[in-house]
Task: inverse folding
């Protein structure tokens, strides 16, 4: 049924991440049907040969693999379990690959529902941002049945560079949450360190150069530090999306009875950034919140 | 007076960092006089041609440049300002290079005292650990007179790879404190992320591999994460030395009226590690403190 050269694929959710990811699958020669809430975003892919469908179930009808890349848990639940959702037309053997970052427990529920129809649900959240999506250099963290992961590996390789099988259903999402805990606390470290540096009269650019290559180094320092110094808060990865991911991580930590003090702090600071109207700025805008609160 | 091929140098403080650093200067062909509180640590350098002296002032008497590498602010003050200290025999033009990590304000006081005798005091704390000292790959962050920094640059290049001039006296120390703020908060990020991962049943090694190459990546994750997982708390950089540096950074932050919440948190956690008898373990032992407190 699955031939590497011409699988029948469906892609649901053609936003800033999904559109270029779907484009890579199309470019690799696969039959691609697509669905998106807003049709206009599909025009480019349609002009390149993708077939438009008017509902998730219709997009999935003849597909071997259905990819989903939407925003939040309820969005995925609607695409999979809702009226006209993928589940309503799922055939045995169907593999659903969810690239959204959503709740690990909701993920396991959908995997169970799909398994009851003989299908498979892989959680496969990504990191690497819109640039990683466009350049096919995403990191993809996959949970679910390992055999099905191996079956879709060549497809994932069209979109990502680092593929990691993380274990049973939900483990891809949990790994993504680990990623976000690291990303945001490292971000906070840069905010506080630069606040200290600038308050001390140090040249912040020289300071980054002096410390960034050693034990103090991080992706966040190298990539967001210079933007913080310049007051350049253009997104990158938006505060509002980071807030959504932090909410998921906070829920998962609470389910496990974990009290993570630094993560709790950074979660509150991102909420504050949202309340101050910074939702559509990049995550480096956390610097403005930290700098202000440090001086109060 | 200063000939690159055979300067007269003195090195005071031959510990785990100072001994290999002094060795590099000796290997480069300079005349080296040495002093250390405990003479036994000087034996190797003496056998290689260094000249032993019985006090800092005696070691410095004929030196163009005096290097200091001891532990804390009072140790440097004693070496420089104490009875038989460097200052008591300082000639005009003497350059003192202090590689210790100490108080920025005490640094400025010593620079002023030395300037009154026509000498120069450069603060030049290092990062990169004992491995960096042995391999001459240290990062060296220098504050003080820029002309004097340029005069000793060839000597610093014998010991370090990344030399950064950070501005007036004390700015090398302040830059080192920025380094330690980043290092310790990034360390805390790894502790909390791995606590979350392991409590969630994820394979922590796979998790580091999945997230370490992207936006979540840091030196601390790559180098300390695997040791945390393995429960390998051998030093590296000892908790008690990190506590000393954090105390200096906390004092400097308070002098500036800064309230840095994540840094305050990690400072308290390192104090707790000290109280729990972990002073001689490596900084990755913070994981044991964080894991326990997260589950309380």
Result:
């Amino acid at each position: 049924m699955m031939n590497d050269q011409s699988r029948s694929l469906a892609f649901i959710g053609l936003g800033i991440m999904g559109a270029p990811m779907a484009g890579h699958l199309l470019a690799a020669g696969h039959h691609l049907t697509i669905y998106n809430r807003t049709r206009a975003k599909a025009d480019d892919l349609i002009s390149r040969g993708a077939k438009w469908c008017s509902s998730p179930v219709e997009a999935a009808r003849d597909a071997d693999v259905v990819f989903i890349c939407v925003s939040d848990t309820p969005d995925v639940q609607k695409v999979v379990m809702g009226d006209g959702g993928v589940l309503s037309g799922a055939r045995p053997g169907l593999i659903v690959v969810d690239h959204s970052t959503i709740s690990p427990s909701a993920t396991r529920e959908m995997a169970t529902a799909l398994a009851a129809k003989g299908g498979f649900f892989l959680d496969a959240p990504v990191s690497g941002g819109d640039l990683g999506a466009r350049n096919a250099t995403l990191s993809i963290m996959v949970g679910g049945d390992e055999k099905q992961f191996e079956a879709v590996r060549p497809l994932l390789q069209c979109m990502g560079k680092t593929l990691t099988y993380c274990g049973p259903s939900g483990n891809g999402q949990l790994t993504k949450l680990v990623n976000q805990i690291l990303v945001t606390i490292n971000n906070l470290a840069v905010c506080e360190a630069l606040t200290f540096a600038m308050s001390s009269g140090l040249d912040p650019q020289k300071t980054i150069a002096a410390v960034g290559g050693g034990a103090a180094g991080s992706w966040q320092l190298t990539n967001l530090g210079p933007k913080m110094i310049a007051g350049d808060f253009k997104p990158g990865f938006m505060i509002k999306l980071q807030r959504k991911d932090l909410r998921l991580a906070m829920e998962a930590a609470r389910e496990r009875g974990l009290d993570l003090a630094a993560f709790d702090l950074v979660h509150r600071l991102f909420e504050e950034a949202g309340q101050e109207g910074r939702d559509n700025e990049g995550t480096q805008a956390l610097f403005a919140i930290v700098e202000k609160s440090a001086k109060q």
